[in-house]
Amino acid sequence: MRQGITVGLANHTCLIARDLVERPIADAAAPIKDDASAIVGSVLIFRDQTKERQVERALRESLASRDLALRAARMGTWSWDIQEGKRHFDEPAAALLGLDLKTFGGTHAEFLARVYPEDQEALMDSLSNTLETGVTYEKDFRVLAPGDGFRHISSRARIESDEVGRATRIDGVLWDITEQKQAAAALQESETQFRLLFEKMVDGFALHEIVLDDAGQAVDFKFLNVNPAFEQLIGLKAGQVTGRRVLEVMPHLERFWIETYIQVALSGNSGTYRRYNQDLGRHFEINVYSPRHGQFAGIFTDITDRVLAEEEVRASRKRLLEILQTTPAGYFYIDREGRYRHVNDAWLRLHGFTSPEEVIGLHFSATQTEQDLAQAENLVARVLAGDQIDSGEVSRRLKDGSTAWHSFTLRPVARDGQINGLEGFLIDTTQAKAAEHLLLRNQAELAAIYDGTPIMMCIVNRNGHVERVNRAMQELIPHHFDICQHEGPGKILGCINALDHPGGCGFSVKCGSCPLRNAMLETFATGKPRRQVRSRMFLVGISPQREIHIQTTISLIQVQGEAKVVLCLQDCTEQRELESQLLQAQKMEAVGQLAGGVAHDFNNILAANILQIELLKTSRELTSEVADGLEELEKGAQRAANLTRQLLLFSRRNVMQSKRLELNQLLADEIKMLQRLLSEQIGFTFEPALVDLWVFADPGMIEQVVMNLCVNSRDAMPHGGKLQLITSRVDLSREALSIHPQGWVGSFALIQVADEGCGIDENTLKRIFEPFFTTKEPGKGTGLGLATVYAIVKQHKGWIEVLSAVGTGTTFCIYIPLSVPAGPSSDPQCESPESRGTETILLVEDDGAIRIQVCKALRGQGYQVIDAMNGAQALSLFHESGLDIDLLLSDMIMPGGITGTRLARQLRQLKPGLKVILMSGYSPESLQPEEALDGPMEFLSKPFDLKTLSRLLRKCLEGHSSHE
Questions:
Q1: What does pTM read for this prediction?
Q2: Which of 248, 353, 713, 777 is spaced 20 to 30 Å from 682 by Cα?
C-alpha cells in the first residue's frame, strides 16, 4: 500500500457479524492518490466466503468418505495419463497388485509384470478395445501372489476425452474378488457333485408339489423332478412324468400315500415308511421330507429282496427251532445277565432235568463245577464281548450233583447291532474224556520211557527212512537236520561205509555188507528181533568227523497195520575206548614194571661202582692221572644215577628227593640232553632269569617236567619252528589272583615252555591233563606225559597254566613257590661232621658187589660190620651176636620172603631200641601198605655215595632220626 500497489489480503480473515456469527471473507486494498500521486487513503473491498468454505468442506468430507468406502470395500483407485504414459495407483490399489509405491515408476511394463502371465494378453486386448471404442472398461484378471499362487482382481474404469474426442485419461477402481471366485468354484463343484449324486444314486428320488382344487384343498401332487433310478422303478422317463399328476401316472396308488405325502408337504414333518406297491409288485422303504412348504421329496429304496430274505429267515428260524428240539446235542441260550432263557430237550437230558421251567431263569453258574467256574465265566465274558468259540471242553455239574464233561461251541447273539446274549451246543464227552485220560497217561508213560532212556532209539519204516527219534538220539543229530527229510539211520548218524559218497546210507558199494542194514532187512523179513548188532558210524555235521561204535537191538512193531522196526542204538565208543585204554595201561604198566626192575638192578650196580670209586679216591698212592680218571668215572656214575631216577619216575617207583636248589642252574645242566631230544629243525633257546630262583624240589622230577613239555612242543612242530625255555620270578598280589585263580599271594618261580606249533583247540584244552587222553595218532602217544607233568607240579605245591589257540602256538606256564636260599652251612653236601664210629652194624644186601663195597667202606671208618645176603641169614646172625648190634642197614626188597621192613619189625621185637636204615632204589610210597615204614626208621635212596651214607649213620646212631 505504501508503495502504491493494489494488495490482495489473506483469505483466512474472519469478521463477526451483528448476529455474532463468524464469517470468513476474502479482502483486497487499493491506494487513493492525489493529483501529485501522493497516497492519501485506501479503498478496502470485502467478499463473503462462507458458501465457498462450506463447499470446500463438503468436498473434503466427500473425498474422505470415498476413501473410507473404498478401503472398507477393499477397493483401490488407479488412473492412466495417456498423454504422459504414466499409471498412478493409490495405496489400496498398490497393495492389491503387490506394487511398492516407493520404487514404482508408473510404467505400463511395471504394472503388466504383476499380472498373471496367462491373463496379460487378454488384459491388453481389453484396454485396446476400450481405447478404440470408448466403451467403459471392465475386466477381471489375476495378479501374482507370494509363492506360486495368484489372486483374482476386478477392474472398472471410464475414459476422459478432449474437445476433439481423443482419449486423454482413464480413471478406474479395482478390488479383490478372490473369495467370490473361490465361492463360485465351490458352488459349481457342489452343484456338479449334487448332480452326479442325483443321477448316480441307487435309490429312486422324486420331488413333488401339492395340487390344490378350487376350494384350496390339497387333492393330488405332481412330479417336479425325478432321477434315473426312479425312472427305472416306474418304467417311465423323466420327460414322461415331469409336470404330470401322480394319479395320472399311477392311477392305482392307494389313498394312504396321497394323504401321507400331503401331510408331510404341509406340516414339514419327515417320516420313513414301508409299503408294497401293487402296480410295481415291489416292496419299498420310503424316506419323505419337505424341502419347502407345499413340496415334498421322497427317496425310494427297493427292499423287496430284504423283505423276502427276512421272511426266509423267519421260516428258517422256525425250522431251526424244530431242529433244536430234536437234535441230540444240547442247545441253550443265555442273556447278558448270564441266565438261561431257552434250552432244548437234549440239554435237559444231559443235565438230568425234566422240564424247561426248572432251568429258565437260573444263572449258568448253577450248572458249573467249582473247578472250572472261573474258566466258564471267562468264556461267557469273551463271547458277550463279540468272540466266537468254535470248540472247547469244560466240566459240568448235573442236577443230582455229579460231574460230567461236555464239549461246547459258543457264539454271540446280536439284535439291532447290540449283543444281547449267547447261544451254544453241548455234547457229552464224559466217557471219551476218561478214555482220553487213560490214553494220554499211557502215551506220557511211553514218551517218558522213549525219551528218558539214555539209549538212542528210532523208528524206521520199510523204506529204510527214520520217522521218529528219541531225545538221546536227537542230541547227536545236527540242528539243521530235519527228520521229515525221510533219511535212513546211516544218513542221520553217518554210515562208516559211505564217508566218501554224498548219497549216504543205501548208496555205498559196501552197503551189502553193512551189519545194521542186513539186520534190519532180516527183521522185516522174518519178524525176529536182532540183538547186539555191532557197526561203526560217524557223527554228521561235526568236523573233524568222529567215528563212533554202535551196538544195536532191532525189534519189529505194527503201527496201524504197517510194519516198522524199532532200533535201540547204544553208543559203546567210550566202552571200546576204555577197553583200549585198559590194554594200553596194562601194556604201560608192564613196561613200567620192566623199567622199574631194570632201574633197580642198575641202581645196585651204580651203588657198588660209586662206593668203589670213592674208596679208590681215598688211596694216597693215586697218581694225578688216576685221580682224574676216577673223577670222570664218578661223574659218569652220577649221570647214570640221574638216568635211573628218570626211569623210576616213569615207572612211578621213585622217591621224591626234594632239596633246595637253584632252578636256573638245574635247567642249564639239562640243556645238552634236551638238545639231543630235539630235531635240527627246532630253534631252541634258553632264557634264564636275571636273579637266582631257589626252590625246594626234586631235581629229577623238575627235569622230567621240562623234558616232557619240550618233547610235546617238538611233536607240535613237525616242520620245525622256535622253542623257548624261559624262567622268571613272579610276585602275586591279591589283585592278581583274578588272573591266576589257582594261585595265592606270594613269590614264585615261573618256567615257560613256548612253541610256534599248531596250537590246541578249546575242547582239547579242557582235557589235556586227563590220563590216557592224547591227540596223537595211535601208537605215538600214551596219554601219560602231561598227566605226569600235572602230578609232579601238584606234588611241588605249584600249578600249571596253558595259553594256546589253533594256529598260534602253545605256552605252558609252571608256577613253583620260591624257597629261602640255603647258606653254605645249611647244605648237607657241605657239612663235614665226624663220620667215623665204633658201633656194630648189621648189613643186609642181596647184591654182593654193594655188600662188599659197603662193608669195606664202613670198616674203613672204624665200624664193626656183620653182613648178610638175605633176611633169614640176618635173623640167624642177629641171634648169634647176642643182641649186640646197634644199627640195621638193610635193603628194602630182598629174595627169600623177608623184606627189609619185615626184618626190621622182627628184630625190634627182639631189641626194641634198634636203629634202622632201609635202602632201596624204589620210593617207599611204591610199596604195599603192609610194607610201609613203621616207627623210627631212616630211608637211603640208591645209588648213594659214601658221604651220604656216613652222615646218615651218625645222624641215626646219635638219635637224630627224622622219623622219631
A1: 0.33
A2: 777
